[in-house]
From TrEMBL:
PROSITE patterns: HTH_ARAC_FAMILY_1, HTH_ARAC_FAMILY_2. The keyword tRNA-binding does not apply. The keyword 4Fe-4S does not apply. It holds the Pfam family Cupin_6. This is HTH araC/xylS-type domain-containing protein. Keywords: Activator, DNA-binding, Transcription, Transcription regulation. It comes from the Bacteria. GO terms for molecular function: DNA-binding transcription factor activity; sequence-specific DNA binding. The lineage of its organism: Bacteria, Bacillati, Actinomycetota, Actinomycetes, Kitasatosporales. Residues 179-277 form the HTH araC/xylS-type domain. InterPro entries: AraC_lig (IPR032783), AraC_XylS_family_regulators (IPR050204), Homeodomain-like_sf (IPR009057), HTH-like (IPR037923), HTH_AraC (IPR018060), HTH_AraC-typ_CS (IPR018062), RmlC-like_jellyroll (IPR014710).
């Protein structure tokens, strides 16, 4: 999978939620901290979104705002008539967030600009269409559209974050050299990568690649490689019954012993114990969200 898909896939838990809300002229709502990401899209009127230490954002029809870290905030109807807006949420695993998510601001304004975010605007239009009519298959379509919307929201956030002086993942994913090495790590994590081989794959010398990767991603190449391998291993332990030797092989470890040591060093418990604890949590999460 590509980097953004992997980042989302390793953090998403449960099912997304969506509602079309109506706000009376005097309406105001305090929204508490949430273990995930929230978004709002204005449909009629104006909704003001405020959060501590963040700029005030006023949603006009078609505007979106994303709170990728689920911080507490306040919603207020900014008109003297009824306003409507879409409200949605995605539960995310916060124990081990992907650094791409950590690179996002707490509150991101995404004004209605089809020329800048065509995919985002198309996703919003499809959601509103599905909500507006009781069409066959609606209960299957809405969750799928919400997953698509999350990708477009994050893509738009990365566009907003980018700029001539920007650093971090918004730049790394668009940098041809670094993006090539990240894709290689995510597509073939089990390969025996070294800094030299990743640099050669990206078309740079070892030293030049290491400097460029560290400056953009925020950590050295092999540090990120190890982090991703063990993150992927933890996901396999949670969601599959494959033997530990297979998890080790898929995660790029030559032996189950080497994998066991690396995993315990990273997570503080053995891989087997981790699977026992988190498989229970995973099944409970699925039964809860499907009930």
């Amino acid at each position: 999978m590509d980097v953004l898909s992997d980042a989302i896939g390793t953090m998403r838990v449960g099912h997304p939620s969506l509602s079309l809300e109506a706000a009376d002229p005097s309406w105001e709502k305090e929204v508490q901290t949430f273990a995930g990401a929230r978004f709002y899209v204005g449909t009629t009127g104006r909704i003001r979104v405020t959060a501590p230490d963040e700029a005030v954002i006023t949603l006009q029809p078609g505007d979106a705002v994303l709170l990728p870290h689920g911080i507490a905030h306040t919603l207020v109807n900014a008109t003297d008539s009824t306003a409507q807006f879409l409200s949605g949420a995605y539960r995310l695993e916060r124990a081990r967030p992907h650094p791409l998510f950590q690179d996002l601001a707490d509150l991101v304004s995404l004004p209605a600009r089809p020329d800048r975010y065509p995919g985002l605007q198309a996703s919003i239009d499809l959601l509103l269409s599905e909500l507006g009519e009781q069409m066959h298959g609606r209960d299957l379509v809405l969750p799928a559209l919400l997953e698509v919307l999350l990708v477009h929201l994050i893509r738009a956030c990365l566009i907003e974050r980018a700029g001539p002086q920007a650093t971090g993942w918004c730049v790394a994913l668009d940098d041809e050299v670094i993006a090539r090495s990240l894709r290689a790590v995510h597509e073939r994590p089990a390969d025996p990568w070294t800094v030299e081989s990743l640099g050669a794959h990206a078309g740079l010398s070892r030293a030049a690649f290491a400097r460029r990767f560290t400056a953009m991603v925020g950590q050295p190449p092999l540090t990120y490689l190890t982090w991703w391998r063990l993150t992927m291993a933890a996901r396999l332990l949670q969601t599959t019954d494959v033997p530990l030797s297979t998890v080790a092989q898929r995660s790029g470890y030559g032996s189950a012993y080497a994998f066991a040591n690396a995993f315990k060093r990273e997570y503080g418990i053995s891989a087997g114990r981790y699977r026992q604890q988190h498989r229970t949590d995973h099944h409970h999460e699925r039964s809860t969200t499907n009930s």
